Amino acid sequence: MSTNWLLLRGLTREQRHWEQFPATLAERLDAKVTCIDSPGFGTESARLCPRTIAAVTDDIRARFDNHCEHWSLLGISFGGMVALDWMARYPNDFQRGVVINSSSGASPFWHRVRPAGVPSLLLQRFRSDYAQERAVVEISSNSPHVDKTAIARRWADYLADRRPSHNSVVNQAIASSRFTLPDHVATPLLILSSRADRLVSFRASQTIAARLQAPIRLHDNAGHDLPLDDADWICDRISEWFSTSESEPSFH
C-alpha cells in the first residue's frame, strides 16, 4: 500500500527529537514523512498547550494538509494518545496507524508511569538543560549504540532554542493523565512496544491492543524511545504488517 506518514512525538518532546527516524522511515518505506509539533512545543512553543488530548488533536489537525494524498499516522507515547483520538474521531483521515509505547486510562497508573521514571519526571525543573536531557535519554534509551552524551547535548540545545512554558508542560501532563482509550478505532492499527521500556510498561500497550483488537509486536530490549534505539525494527514490523494485512489480533 502506497502511503505517506505523519509523525507525532511524545510528552514534552518536539519533532527534532525524532533524530534520524523520519529519514530512515522515508527511505525504508519509500514514503514522504512529515512531522508536526504539538501546541506549546517545538515550532509552537510560543503557544499554550491545551489540557485535553482532543484539543491537541484538533489543533494539529487544523495545521495538517492531507488533501489529495494517502497518509498514515504514527505516534509515540503522548503522540500515540493523540493518534488514537484522531483516528477514532476522524476515521477517514488516515489509511493506517501505528502507536508506539503509549498508554491510556484503561491501564493502572503503575503501568502508565513505571517507578524508575518517577525521579526523572519530578526533578526536571531543578536541573540544568544538559543534566535534564541526559536524565531523559538515560531512562528512555537502552541501546549501547546510542551516544547518550551527544544526544543529551543536542537535546539541551533544542530546549534552549525552543523552550516550552511551564504551563504547557503541566497542561500536556494533565491531558495525558486524563486520556481515555476510545471504544473503537476503525482505521487499521498496529501497536508496537518494548518489554524493556523503563518509563511505560509494555502491558499498557497490550491493553490498548486487546481493547481495540489490534495486532501488537514487542521488542525485547529497546527502551521507551524505540525509534532512537531500533528504527530498523520499527520499519521491519510496519513492512510485515503491510505485506500480511493481518485480519486477526495477535497478542504476545
Task: Spell out the blueprint of helices and strands.
Blueprint: E1 4-8, H1 21-29, E2 33-35, H2 53-63, E3 71-76, H3 78-89, E4 97-100, H4 109-112, H5 118-122, H6 129-140, H7 148-161, H8 166-177, E5 189-194, H9 202-212, E6 216-219, H10 226-229, H11 231-244
Helix pairs in contact: 1-11, 2-3, 6-7
Describe the protein:
This protein has 252 residues and is of the alpha/beta class. The protein has a single domain (4-244), classed as Alpha/Beta hydrolase fold, catalytic domain (Rossmann fold, 3-Layer(aba) Sandwich), CATH 3.40.50.1820. It is built from eleven helices and six strands. The chain has helices at residues 21-29, 53-63, 78-89, 109-112, 118-122, 129-140, 148-161, 166-177, 202-212, 226-229, 231-244; strands at residues 4-8, 33-35, 71-76, 97-100, 189-194, 216-219. A six-stranded parallel beta sheet has the order 2-1-3-4-5-6, with helices on both faces. Helix 2 (53-63) packs across helix 3 and helix 6 packs across helix 7. The protein is globular. Mean pLDDT is 91; it is low at 246-252.
